Amino acid sequence: MPNNAEEGERRRIIGELRACCESLQERLPLNGDAMIVGSSGVVAMNESYTYASTVISMRADIDDRFIRCAYGLSHEAVHMVQLVSNHFPLEMAFEFANLCGLTNKRLKAKTPEAEWVPGVVRDYRIAIYRMEHRDGGFSALNVIEAQAVIEGFRGAFSKYSENGLVNLIAIAHGLESDYADVIGRLLGAYGFTFTFEVVPKLCWLALQTKEPGMTFTGWLMELSEVDVSPLAKMTACELCIAFGTDPEQASRSIRAKVPGVRNHPLHALFSGYFDVVECETDPEAFLQLVMHPGRSSAPTAKIRMTDLMPPLTIFSDDRYLMHGPYKNQGWDAAEPLLRAATLATETLEWIGEQSDRLPG
Hints:
The protein is mostly helical. The protein has one domain. The protein has 18 helices and three strands. It has helices spanning 4-27, 32-40, 49-56, 64-85, 87-108, 117-132, 140-156, 162-172, 178-197, 199-206, 212-223, 229-232, 236-242, 247-250, 254-257, 265-278, 283-291, 331-357; strands spanning 42-44, 312-314, 320-322. Strands 1-2-3 form a three-stranded mixed beta sheet. The longest helix is centred in the C-terminal third of the chain and has 27 residues, at 331-357. The radius of gyration is 20 Å and the shape is globular. The chain starts with a helix and ends with a helix. The mean pLDDT is 92.
């Protein structure tokens, strides 16, 4: 057990990171969370550790606070699955991590900012544009969050309905949020069954492409004039084939398809998660896992949702919890993650400030 001084220092380190996360989320309300998880493996919960523990152990009353907390944990696990099974989220995580690494290297070397900041800002703006542009349809970020909302809902609860999904979004995100707009458009156009059973699969397939938003939008436009009910009855492999994807190829690990992944510094942080999803070698079972990670909350699941939570969650009372491959590790493992996450978050905030300062 840490003494009072050690406990105080731990809380100071966590509090510093939490403040950085809040600042970045204020600057980038749409994709701040995804950037923090992708570049550092950290989730900042707007909830106390004490209360979250009662939710995890099912000792809390089921009210709006319970719903937000349970769903928040489930939602972030979906983002972790996306990161280690999809090309686009992993590419974006690598891009932001590379920008952080280059920025810190130049700042440490005291390289004149005029020589390198414009290039970093250019690449940062390109990355943000790739995440957010929608051209009248859905953005890549919309695709990422649509799957995370639907599968977060599935993973956190056991009864599912259109009203339940809409109420969850109202409680967790607000009726005026982008989340409500995206899911509302899908429900209005295609109904609950398609949205709940087919959309997560299409999101995952679209996130394998260079332009997930354009791909997802194009598919939905093609489906707007046809009966979509047969799609809800298809297996994951059948749906892949229907949308022009080889299920055998789609179910191969990113590390197998892109061996260079192992050479990136972020691989060391997330390698245990690649190991978890790669345990599933049957194509249909693998695709069901990554397309519908919310189903991993079932007690009979071979790979559990708790195995897929991001490495570290920090709470509003400046305490922390380790998850997934890190779950049995203590402060010695948590501290370097916290310090690296703080540096990454501070750096992304700094780059964002330079982007605001320089002409666009």
